[in-house]
Design goal:
The chain is mostly helical. It contains four helices and no strands.
């Protein structure tokens, strides 16, 4: 979970790859600790609030839910 936040908050405006990798890390964290599942949605909301674009937010949401669905 801490690695996901570190990847996401490392730069001012996260790139698409950085957003997806942070969401994948958060998804892996949610598999181990189900308490982290709402943080995937909050991460996508953060990307929308930062005006990173709906494509980055959607990609991050899909990447974060991928390990959980698996």
């Amino acid at each position: 979970m801490i690695a996901a936040f570190a990847v996401l908050f490392m730069r001012k405006s996260p790139s698409a790859w950085r957003s997806v990798s942070a969401a994948l890390l958060m998804g892996a964290s949610a598999v181990i600790r189900p308490d982290a599942l709402p943080l995937i949605f909050l991460m996508a909301g953060y990307l929308l609030v930062r005006r990173s674009g709906w494509r980055r937010a959607g990609a991050a949401l899909a990447a974060g839910l991928l390990p959980v669905a698996g």
